Amino acid sequence: MGGYPTKGGSILQLFSVIRRISEANRSAQRQMERQLNSLTKPLGSLGDVEDLAIQLAGMTGSTELTIDPAMVLLLAADHGVTAEGVSAFPADVTQQMVQNFLSQGAAINVLSRASLARVQVIDMGINADLSIPGLISRKIRMGTSNMTKGPAMSYDEAIRAIETGIEIAHDAVTQGAKLLALGEMGIGNTTASSAILAVLGQIPVEDVVGVGTGIRDNVRERKIFVIEKAIAVNQPNAFDPIDILSKVGGFEIAGLTGIVLEAAASRVPVLVDGFITAVAALIATKLAPLSAQYLIGSHESVEPGHKIVNRLLGIRPLLRLHLRLGEGSGAALALPILRTATLIPKEMSTFESAQISGALDGSVQGASAEPQSVSSVPPVPKRHEFQSFYKEGVYKAIYERRDIRSFLKHPIEEEKLRRILDAAHHAPSVGFMQPWNFILVQSDSIKQQLHDMVSKEVQIAGNYFEGHRAELYPKLKVQGIVEAPITLCVTNDPTRDGTHVLGRNTIPETDVYSVVCAIENLWLAARAEGLGVGWVSFYKKEDVRQLLGIPAHIDPVALLSIGYTAAFQNKPILESVGWGRRQSLEDLLFSDAWGMPFTFQRKIGAAE
User: Fold this and answer.
1) Which reaction does it catalyse (predicted)?
2) DSSP helix/strand/coil, 319
3) What are the helix and strand counts (H, E) for the chain?
4) Which alpha helices (H) appear in 138-188, and where do they start and end?
5) Residue 211's pLDDT band (boundaries 50, 70, 90)?
6) Counting Cβ atoms within 10 Å, is residue 11 exposed (0-12), middle (13-18) or buried (19+)?
7) Residues 416 and 545 in one domain
8) What CATH code is carried by the domain that includes residue 441?
9) CA 161 distance to own-chain centroid
């Protein structure tokens, strides 16, 4: 198949694809942004459509945008868990719907024709021997096992299903596909997807289970019970996405995961459909975090889990049409928007070509524009504002940063590590003194010694808590120091710029504040890169100095565990377990003097 020999569960093929995935092309994105800014419109006035064009440029590495030919890859399989009564439809509807797809009578056929996309239907594990013209058979076996009685599939079958998806995507790209839209069919697959999300995101089952094919409340309660039972029976490893797939997943879900990975490796955009395809994409991002940069969210369905998984993926859905069909229907509906995003930079005139004057404030240069006097230019709030695509990324990193305590045994790529350290090094510092140094601890022996000294201080600190906090305290973990591939010691050198540092004379601790700014920069950059960071502060400075050979005048400000993690929690750990709550912003704001309440107005600082 297209240069990818099937190896019956060998993980080597999977790893080789993951290694080929690189980050989006930032240079192409900047070039596309400049191109969009030259068009006959106010800056950013096409909003998300412009952001899509920038995204597509980054994915493909080119400003010559196209999504055609676009292909919907619809993977079908059956699920043994349907025997537990979790769906409104019997299991044989899967094969009946596949026949409908190939007869061109289903919703996805109508929508794809309207959206100028081709549909391929692939049998990944239908519980029947089907011989229908047009059906591509890549069957792993006839449906998964009932996951309430044991694993849905073997670990090797899960790998084989992912690699089959890789082959399917490779063949589609070889045939010329410029965009792959994800589709699925499988009675019972919302049950499997809900189970995967609950484990992978460490989320209560009842929060992710919806109505699926249109079940009633009593069936929904049954579905929650079945999923909880399956998780209890199989005990899937939350830190191993393939283990989760094998125990509570489906063959079509695994295949979709493989499609995402191969598309990302081939720099081909992936248009995610509904809940099931989004869960498959989430698994792909856990296996290869950079694959997230090749995902576009078509819509947000009524399934409660879909909103959660979109947030975990960083997907901003293009449409909210209250869909709950699957098949790739939402992706097909969104295709015209993407096609429009590719046409805007090609077909719109520039200010120069249309001989139209630019903006008065100079933000857009028009034809033969005369330079404006700075004093004559009125202030414009949006002049230096980021495009919404970049702006949302900044806020996303801030709001989704977490203090991580569990890490995967997975190395950090050199270029990624360099980027987050460089982000730290670009922090603001008092008098530009840059008082920081970074000691990268990779030695297992040294990490174990750090862990031992931290554990000792953790035990001592536990004596200071009472009541509920005393009960919670022993559950807090510092194991990340030995689990994470790197522990970073961040230090402060107060002598870096001499005795008298600009801005430090009256507040001597501003050098430490500067180091903390560097830590926050690194933390946010790490979150953007899919890396977890855990800040450990249980240690005596002298112990760390002695172990790491740090001079006596230099302070070890922080020990940071850095590495990949299985999940970023929805809330900070201490908030989730009830240690404390986030204070109201309004309670922390004063106006002009301490204790004077502040009220937000439409424009702050406007003349009265």
Assistant:
1) 5,6-dimethylbenzimidazole + nicotinate beta-D-ribonucleotide = alpha-ribazole 5'-phosphate + nicotinate + H(+)
2) strand
3) 23, 10
4) 155-174
5) low
6) middle
7) yes
8) 3.40.109.10
9) 23
Q: Which of 352, 242, 256, 225 is nearest to 286 (CA)?
A: 242
Angle between helices 275-287 and 304-313 (to 10 degrees): 30
Inform me whether the pLDDT recorded for 6 exceeds 60.
no
Indicate which residue of 163, 252, 300, 327 is catalytic. 327
Together in a domain, 329 and 423: no
pLDDT, tens digit, for every residue of 20-65?
A: 999 999 999 999 999 999 998 998 899 999 999 999 999 999 999 9
Q: 69 preceded by cis ω (within 30°)?
A: yes
Task: Determine the Cα–Cα distance for residues 318 and 295; give it in Å rounded to an integer.
Answer: 12
Q: How many of the other CB atoms lie within 10 Å of CB of 549?
A: 7
The tokens describing 19, both together, are 């290694």
Rounded CA separation 361/171 (Å): 51
- The rounded distance, in Å, linking the Cα atoms of 279 and 272 is 10
Q: What is the arithmetic mean of pLDDT over 510-518?
A: 97
The residue out of 321, 337, 353 marking a domain boundary is 337
User: Which of 337, 358, 380 is where one domain is finished?
Assistant: 337
- For residue 290, CA distances in Å to 262, 287, 379 come to 12, 9, 39
Greatest extent of the chain over all pairs of C-alpha atoms, in Å? 83
Contact status, residue 104 vs residue 167, Cβ threshold 8 Å: no
- Given pLDDT bands bounded at 50, 70 and 90, which one contains residue 383? low
Residue 542 a catalytic site member: no
Domain of 450? 401-588
- Span 112-117, mean pLDDT? 96
Q: Distance between CA 416 and CA 407 in Å, rounded? A: 17
> Are 576 and 474 in the same domain?
yes
Query: What's the one-letter identity of residue 121?
Result: V
Mind listing the pLDDT tens digit for each residue in 570-601? 888 888 878 888 999 999 999 999 999 898 87
For 516, phi and psi rounded to 5 degrees?
-65, -35
Q: What is the DSSP string of 287-322?
A: H-GGGGGGEEE-B--S-HHHHHHHHHHT---SB---
Does residue 1 carry a pLDDT above 60? Answer: no
Same domain, 177 and 292: yes
Instruction: Give backbone dihedrals phi and psi of 556, rounded to 5 degrees, phi first.
Output: -80, 105
pTM above 0.70, yes or no: no
